[in-house]
């Protein structure tokens, strides 16, 4: 059994990034439900991320989405984040919300549209440099709906060209994470539908291009931890967009639908030595809280990742390896399940007390009166972006 001090040290060093868009109003294509007290601009989203960090102690950065978080002065926003106790994390360019992008962005058949999309990616590289961000996080809504609609192969060439130009513009400290998604908004094919496509492009680009795994972007039943192990082994696991899915890209709270899957993923991370911040695997949340209050939902999500991580850290690796090596199928499985079935809430509560934060972050947030203050202060909260 790993000793408690080692488990706590690893949990204390863990970093989980929250996304700016989770703090704004969101919904489905049927309805956006407006909530009270939501942020009105990027500055207030930063404030909410800082609040989540204050109550959890392990969420010290916020991912931005451009143009949803566009501001006049990014240096000022960076300072605002610093003053609030956090920093700017991944920069997420948005090349999917304009009429020009009906047939795609960087894969569009029209070179003028491709140029416009590339210019936005390059602008985001600059924003990353100004904000001290080390991650350019790329997701393309590009794809086709009908067989024959466009050349699958030509679109790959266009994609490669844009990625290459973007990669070339990145400062040395910046990584490019390329996110894949099986379907939606395109239904016949997406241009980056799976880890293999992302990986192939990353290999061509260079060491600082890595695969981003959004847990909601796979076919039902996909073994995500296999992909995680494979990409880690290849040195190409850039990070995660954590969330839960029941059916499609549901973007529900991580660990809510399938805590066992999250544990299995974190087990591969721990075994692969990738929990260490030096391994540079970004643990980011990509969620929308359509009907539940946003800040406590984010706190809950951070705790869910922590709980899965704690269980993965409790796996008795020596016993596991011994069972594996001797072909003890049941023993190996039991080593994993023993850890999964451990109640890790007491050890996490202890850790939080040692860190000087409340052992029960959700209860502490409720008691703090922060939500009521936000409702009083903020009138007319902004929509996260979709349908805006
Ligand atoms: C879209 O499905 C991807 O998950 C994106 O990472 C992300 O949700 C988007 O950029 C935010 O709108
Ligand atoms: Zn995502
Ligand atoms: Zn998702
Ligand atoms: Zn998604």
List keywords for this structure.
388 residues; alpha/beta; TIM Barrel; eight-stranded parallel beta sheet; two-stranded antiparallel ribbon; 14 helices; binds D-allose; binds zinc ion; isomerase; L-rhamnose_isomerase
Explain the overall architecture.
- The chain is an alpha/beta fold and 388 residues long.
- The chain has a single domain (14-309), classed as Divalent-metal-dependent TIM barrel enzymes (TIM Barrel, Alpha-Beta Barrel), CATH 3.20.20.
- The chain is 45% helix and 12% strand.
- The chain has 14 helices and 10 strands.
- The protein has helices at residues 4-13, 42-56, 74-83, 111-131, 152-169, 195-205, 224-233, 259-271, 294-314, 317-325, 329-340, 345-354, 361-368, 370-377; strands at residues 16-19, 61-66, 87-93, 135-138, 143-144, 175-179, 189-190, 209-214, 237-242, 282-285.
- The strands form 2 sheets. Strands 3-2-1-10-9-8-6-4 form an 8-stranded parallel sheet, with helices on one face.
- Helix 2 links the parallel strand 1 (16-19) and strand 2 (61-66).
- The protein starts with a helix and ends in an 11-residue tail after the last helix.
- The mean pLDDT is 96.
- The structure holds D-allose and zinc ion (3 copies).
- One zinc ion binds next to loops.
